[in-house]
Amino acid sequence: MREETVQPATPKKRRKKSPQIKRLTPNAVVQRVKFGETGVSVCIDDFGEDGPECFTEGTVIYINQQHPLYQREVKKPDTYILNVTRLITQEISLMKDTRNPRQAFSRQSKLLRDAFIDRQSQ
């Protein structure tokens, strides 16, 4: 009798997916970002100069690119990234329990710190 050796199945390596970007309207850009088990989509679109700076519907964060502050910051790349990150972390913090403002600001601060931490100096 001949014994057959069965090789254990090697797990397939998962390819790291980059976030998907999709255009809704000619001016809107949507990007999906996954955080562990949950994810959010960020949509940058025109909501008028008098519209809100940003708002959330479900897990979609909408950023108003016609808002005067956005228009001012888009001209400066360094502060533009900080401004968009601030808006995203603000809305993520509000998605959680919003009854305690101190906790929401603390959560936003932690998210901002994690987003801008200099990993090379550690």
User: What structural category arises from helix and sheet content?
Assistant: alpha+beta
Unreliable spans are: 18-22
pLDDT averaged over residues: 79
Percentage of helical residues?
25-40%
Return Rg in Å. Answer: 20 Å
Short account of what is shown:
With 122 residues, the chain is of the alpha+beta class. The protein has helices spanning 68-73, 77-95, 101-116; strands spanning 21-22, 29-35, 38-45, 54-57, 60-64. The relative contact order is 0.10.
What brief labels describe this structure?
122 residues, 3 helices, extended, alpha+beta
Describe this structure in words.
By secondary structure, this protein is of the alpha+beta class. The protein has one domain. The chain has helices at 68-73, 77-95, 101-116, and strands at residues 21-22, 29-35, 38-45, 54-57, 60-64. Helix 2 (77-95) packs across helix 3 (101-116). It is extended. The model is unreliable at 18-22 (pLDDT under 50).
Secondary-structure map with pairings?
Layout: E1 21-22, E2 29-35, E3 38-45, E4 54-57, E5 60-64, H1 68-73, H2 77-95, H3 101-116
Helix pairs in contact: 2-3
